Amino acid sequence: MFRGDLTHSGIYAATGVPKLKGVKWSFHSRGEIISSPAIANGVVYVGSNDGNLYAIDQQSGSKKWSYATGARITSSPAVADGLVYCSSYDGTFFAVDAISGKLKWKFRIAGERRYTATHLHGSLPAGEAMPDPFDVYLSSPAVWRGAVYFGSGDGNIYALDAATGTVKWKFPTGDVVHASPAIADGKLYIGSWDSYFYALDASTGKELWRFKTGEDPDIHNQVGIQSSATVSDGVVYFGCRDSNFYALDASTGQKRWSFSNKGSWVIVSPVVQAGKVYFATSDSALFNILDAHTGALIDTIKFQWPIFASPSIAGNMLYLAGQDGKLLAVDLTSRKPVWTYQTDGSKQYLRAYSNPDGSPNYRAVFTSDFYDDLIAGVEKIRTVGMILSSPVISGSVVYVGSSDGNLYALE
């Protein structure tokens, strides 16, 4: 499931790739792979924007089966008890047999949609409702004690019977929920685009507490929670589009501390290990290391392109992917990149949309403040082969998807 476990730790008991040899295999789909892969019993499961859920042999990279949902899959699958669970942009949640790829059951929500607001990011015309093109992920499911949990574009958080798809409970929020639920000690933690972060009883759906983040009533740029929380040692950590990174007491919802990213979104889920929190930012493209107890900045590494994909750790290496289509392995002792892998799409198109110093050339992409030009620009820049999928480590291989349509297995 997303980030490897119910708490979204992002820490994998694997050797990883301390030294990159090359590509073990790559699997090509007909659409962007934004979904992060899930691995179970020698099979890699991943969704694609071509509308298919794929099962791929972990060793060879050959397709075992595909299931056509009819719309983009930007959620990351969860695998449990012989079933694969995922959401699609057609407003359907699917449970598919993990071996055969046959549909077990499906559940329709009230209607999937992206976060929508007027004057979005300062775009014109100011009074027009605009879907946010940076709301790229669907909620990835979590499976716990016979139930499967996920957020939805209809504003609800759902708990379904994992075997049958019948509703156990649903909890309404004030807007789209595309963050993924984390579960710890019987509590479910998730943020919404309504600017609140929620803790619910996972068995009943009863609200335990909520925490208010920032608002942006004019251009709706600095509002909403896309980051999926990580729970560690009684603390919930998550980023927000209000540009803050938060640490809340998991039992009470009281703020332990917050860290300001000075206007830059935090979309990633963090990694917490050995008293340190690791996370990256969007526009400012910073990789920050904080003291997990105090929020004090320990170190920061500057990159050039925004980072949406969440970092992962295996052994002493942290794997971090950016919108420039580059996956980096960072040594946690020296805090320096050890190797870099560049996607095929990035090799082909990155230079066309980069400044001489390697930073994004947004002037070449976004030609005006009109909303249509924003959408056109986003489509252009996605051709770079950017990595929005979070890397998953199994054994001595790192698996990651790209907007160039490939799922890469790197060893």
How many β strands by DSSP? 35
- Percent range of helical residues: under 10%
**Strand order of the main beta sheet, please?**
1-29-30-31-32
Mean pLDDT: 97
- Content of β-strand: 35-45%
The main sheet comes to: 5 strands, mixed
Silhouette: globular
Low-confidence runs of at least 5 consecutive residues: none
Cα radius of gyration in angstroms: 20 Å
- Number of helices in the DSSP assignment: 2
From the N-terminal CA to the C-terminal CA, the straight-line distance is: 22 Å
Written account of the structure:
The chain is mainly beta. It has two helices and 35 strands. It has helices spanning 344-349, 371-382; strands spanning 11-12, 23-28, 38-40, 43-47, 52-57, 63-68, 78-80, 83-88, 92-97, 103-108, 116-118, 129-131, 142-144, 147-151, 156-161, 167-172, 182-184, 187-191, 196-201, 207-212, 230-232, 235-239, 244-249, 255-260, 271-273, 276-280, 286-291, 297-302, 312-314, 317-321, 326-331, 336-342, 392-394, 397-401, 406-410. The strands form nine sheets. A five-stranded mixed β-sheet has the order 1-29-30-31-32. It has a four-stranded antiparallel β-sheet with strand order 2-35-34-33, with no helix packed on it. A four-stranded antiparallel β-sheet has the order 3-4-5-6, with no helix packed on it. Strand 30 and strand 31 (326-331) form a beta hairpin. The mean pLDDT is 97.
Quick summary of this structure?
This protein is mainly beta and 411 residues long. Helix content is 4%, strand content 41%.
Q: Key terms for this structure?
A:
411 residues; five-stranded mixed sheet; 2 helices; globular
